[in-house]
Specification:
The complex is a heterodimer. By secondary structure, chain A is α/β, with parallel strands linked by helices. Chain A has ten helices and twelve strands. In chain A, the strands form two sheets. Chain A has an eight-stranded mixed sheet, with helices on both faces. In chain A, strands 2-1-4-5 form a four-stranded antiparallel sheet, covered by helices on one side. The longest helix of chain A has 18 residues. By secondary structure, chain B is mostly helical. Chain B has one domain: MetI-like (MetI-like fold, Orthogonal Bundle), CATH 1.10.3720. Helices cover about 75% and strands about 0% of the residues of chain B. In chain B, α4 packs across α6. The chains are: A alpha/beta, B mainly alpha. Chains A and B meet through α3 and α4 of A and α1, α7, α8 and α11 of B.
C-alpha cells in the first residue's frame, strides 16, 4: 500500500527550565493513502506534539532530538520555512479543536476561506467566491450563497468547524491532520462532523490523522488506531482488532473503562499519567499495569510485531530474562 | 450559481452591512445627535467666514466688552470685536487643528505601535524606549518646546500637538496588538504565508481599532485644549486670529467683569470635545460586527 507519511524513530523534547520533557519519545508509524489513522491517548501523551511535528509547526522550546517525518518521501523536519509553506495548507492541512479562535472575528467566513486560495494561487479573493460556495456545499453548510457573507459570530460551533474543514480541504490535500476536531462540540454535532470527514476522505482520497482522547469515537471512524502512552506507542492495529482483541494492558484498561454496565462500577485505570520530565524506568506504564513483572521496571520494551500489529509490551516479545 | 451572481450577492451583503452600521449608529441617540453637531462644526469650519455678521478683525474700543444683545448675540470682546463672528471665523482653526493633529498623531502612533507589538524584538525595544522618554515629558511642556523650535503657525502647531500625543497611541496600540497577535487566526494567516505587512494591516489592525477610535476622539477634545493652552501662552496661532483657545486666553483678564468673553468660546470648545467623544463611542460600536449584532438583538 502506498505510504503518504512515514514517521521513523521520532523524539521531540521540550527543553524547559524545570527539565527536559520527553513529549514524544521514539515513535514509528506510517499513514497509508486514503486511510484514517486514529491516534488516541490521555492528555499529555504527546498526541498534539506529534501532530505539530507532522505539519512542520514545532516551535521552541520543542526540539526534534532524532528521527524523520517523511511526507511523500521528503523529510518535513529538514525543510526550510519557505519550502514548508508550499506544503502546508496545500498538501498537508490541519483542523483544530476550537474552531472559533481560528476565524478572524472582523471578516466574513467566505472571505477567510477565499484568502486560502488567494495565498496559494494568487490573484484577488473575488476570483474565488464561486469556489468557496462549492466548498461550503461540500461540507454541507446550508444555504452556502448566503453563508459566505456571514461573520463567525453568526455561526454555531459546528458550522464554524465546517468552515475550517472547508479551508483544510480547499486544495485537496494528501493528508489532513485533525487534532481533537470534535472535542469542543456537542455529541450530535460531533457525529455529523465525523461523518463529514469520512465522506471527504472518500471523495478526495485524502488520508486523515484523527487525534482524540475519545477511543469510542475512533473505534467508529478509524481504519487503524495507534494508542499512545506517555510519549510512546503502546499499540498499533486495525480498529476491529483493537476493539475485539486488545494486546497491550493499557489498551485493555482503556477499553474496559469504556464498557459501561448499569449498577457496575466504572473500570478506571489506577494512578495517573507519569511526569514526562522523569518518567519511570523501564516500561512507562508498569507502575499502573496489573500484569507487570520484574523486567517491566528495568527495561524499555521495543515495538514487537504480533501478526500485522505492533505492540510495545514484554508480554509479546523480548528476552524476559537477560539482555534485550 | 455562477460566480458573477455570487459576487453580486457579496457586494449586496456589504451594502447591507453599511446600512447596519448606520442603523447601529442611529440607535445610539447621543452619538446620532453628536454626528449632527460634528457635521455642523465642520460646516462652520468650512463656511464660517461667509456667515459672519461683522468683520471678526474690526475693533472698536467704544463697543468693548458689551454683554450679549440683539446686535451682538454673543457680546463683544475686550477690543469691541463681535464674538459670534470671531467664533465662526475661528472654527476652522480650532476644529482644523484638532482634526489634523489627531489624524497625524494616530497615523504615527498606530504605525509605531503595530511595528512595536507585531515585529517585536529590536523594533519594540527602540520604539518603546523613545515612547517612554516622550511620555516622561509633560505633554504641554513638550508641545511648548516643539512650537518654540518649529516656529509659530498653524502647521507647526499641528505637528507639535501630534508629536506630543502620538506616544499615547503607540503605547495603547502595542498593548492591544500583543493581545491580538496571540490569537489563533493570526497564526493561521501566518501559516498561509501572508506577508507581515499584510497581516499587520489586514488582520491585526482591524481587531485593534476600537480602543484607537475611542482614544482618538477623546484626544480631539484634548488637542483643542492643548492648542488653547499654547495660544494662551502666546505660542499658538498668532493674534489676531480668533482661535477659540486664544480667545479664552486673551479674555481671561475680564472673567469677572465680562464673563461672556470666555464663556462663549469655552462653550464651543466643550460642545466640540463632548460631541467628538460621544460620536467616537457610537462609531466604535458600529464598526465592530460583534457589538453591532449584540446591540441590535438587545
Amino acid at each position: 500500500m502506498e505510504k503518504v507519511l512515514e514517521v521513523k524513530n521520532l523524539r521531540i523534547y521540550y527543553e524547559l527550565p524545570q527539565g527536559i520533557v520527553r513529549a514524544v519519545d521514539g515513535v514509528d508509524f506510517e499513514v497509508h493513502k486514503g486511510e484514517i489513522l486514529g491516534i488516541a491517548g490521555e492528555s499529555g501523551s504527546g498526541k498534539s506534539t506529534l501532530a505539530l511535528a507532522v505539519a512542520g509547526l514545532l516551535r521552541p522550546p520543542a526540539k526534534v532530538v532524532s528521527g524523520e517525518v517523511l511526507f511523500m518521501g521528503t523529510n518535513i523536519l529538514s525543510l526550510t520555512e519557505e519550502e514548508l509553506r508550499s506544503i502546508r495548507g496545500k498538501k498537508i492541512s490541519m483542523i483544530f479543536q476550537d474552531p472559533s479562535t481560528y476565524l478572524n472575528p472582523v471578516y466574513t467566513t467566505g472571505f477567510q476561506v477565499a484568502e486560502v486560495y488567494e495565498a496559494h494561487r494568487g490573484g484577488s479573493w473575488r476570483r474565488y467566491v464561486g469556489d468557496v460556495v462549492k466548498l461550503f456545499r461540500m461540507v454541507k453548510i446550508a444555504d452556502p450563497e448566503r453563508r459566505v457573507n456571514a461573520y463567525p459570530h453568526q455561526m454555531s460551533g459546528g458550522m464554524k468547524q465546517r468552515v475550517l474543514i472547508s479551508m483544510a480541504i480547499a486544495e485537496k490535500p494528501e493528508l489532513i491532520i485533525a487534532d481533537e476536531p470534535t472535542s469542543a462540540l456537542d455529541v450530535t454535532i460531533q457525529a455529523e462532523i465525523v461523518e463529514l470527514l469520512n465522506e471527504i476522505r472518500k471523495e478526495t482520497g485524502s488520508s486523515i490523522i484523527f487525534i482524540t482522547h475519545d477511543l469510542a469515537l475512533l473505534l467508529e471512524i478509524a481504519d487503524r488506531i495507534m494508542i499512545m502512552y506517555a510519549g510512546k506507542i503502546a499499540e498499533i492495529g486495525r480498529a476491529e482488532e483493537i476493539a475485539k482483541d486488545p494486546l497491550h494492558p493499557y489498551t485493555k484498561a482503556l477499553l474496559s473503562s469504556l464498557q459501561y454496565e448499569r449498577k457496575k462500577r466504572l473500570q478506571a485505570i489506577p494512578g495517573s499519567i507519569p511526569s514526562l520530565i522523569s518518567p519511570p524506568p523501564g516500561c512507562r506504564f508498569h507502575p499502573r499495569c496489573p500484569l507487570a513483572f520484574d523486567i517491566c521496571s528495568k527495561k524499555d520494551p521495543q515495538l514487537y510485531r504480533v501478526g500485522g500489529r505492533v505492540v510495545s509490551c514484554f508480554l509479546y516479545g523480548g528476552d524476559h530474562g537477560g539482555s534485550a | 450559481m455562477e460566480s458573477g451572481e455570487i459576487l453580486r450577492r457579496v457586494y449586496e451583503a456589504r451594502r447591507r452591512r453599511l446600512r447596519e452600521m448606520w442603523e447601529t449608529l442611529k440607535s445610539n441617540k447621543a452619538a446620532y445627535v453628536s454626528l449632527y453637531i460634528v457635521g455642523f462644526l465642520i460646516f462652520i469650519a468650512i463656511f464660517g467666514p461667509l456667515l459672519t455678521p461683522y468683520n471678526p478683525y474690526d475693533f472698536d474700543l467704544s463697543r468693548a466688552r458689551q454683554p450679549p444683545s440683539p446686535a451682538h448675540p454673543f457680546g463683544t470682546d475686550e477690543l469691541g470685536r463681535d464674538i459670534l463672528s470671531r467664533i465662526l471665523e475661528g472654527a476652522r482653526y480650532t476644529i482644523g487643528i484638532s482634526i489634523a493633529s489627531v489624524l497625524l498623531g494616530v497615523v504615527i502612533g498606530v504605525i509605531l505601535g503595530l511595528a512595536s507589538g507585531y515585529l517585536g524584538g529590536l523594533w519594540d525595544t527602540v520604539i518603546q524606549r523613545v515612547v517612554d522618554v516622550m511620555l516622561a515629558f509633560p505633554t504641554v511642556l513638550l508641545a511648548i518646546a516643539l512650537v518654540a523650535s518649529l516656529g509659530q503657525g498653524v502647521v507647526s502647531l499641528i505637528i507639535a500637538i501630534a508629536i506630543s500625543t502620538f506616544p499615547v497611541y503607540a503605547r495603547l496600540v502595542r498593548g492591544v496588538v500583543l493581545q491580538v497577535v496571540n490569537e489563533d487566526y493570526i497564526a493561521a494567516a501566518r501559516l498561509l504565508g501572508k506577508s507581515k505587512i499584510y497581516i499587520m494591516f489586514r488582520h491585526v489592525l482591524p481587531n485593534s481599532i476600537s480602543p484607537i477610535v475611542v482614544q482618538a476622539t477623546y484626544y480631539m477634545g484634548l488637542s483643542i485644549l492643548l492648542a488653547s493652552a499654547l495660544g494662551f501662552l502666546g505660542l499658538g496661532v498668532p493674534p489676531p486670529t480668533p482661535e477659540w483657545g486664544a480667545m479664552i486666553g486673551s479674555g481671561r483678564t475680564y472673567i469677572f467683569s465680562a464673563p461672556h468673553i470666555v464663556v462663549f468660546p469655552g462653550v464651543f470648545i466643550m460642545i466640540s470635545a463632548l460631541s467628538f467623544n460621544l460620536l467616537g463611542d457610537g462609531l466604535r460600536d458600529a464598526l465592530d460586527p460583534k457589538a453591532r449584532a449584540l446591540l441590535r438583538r438587545g
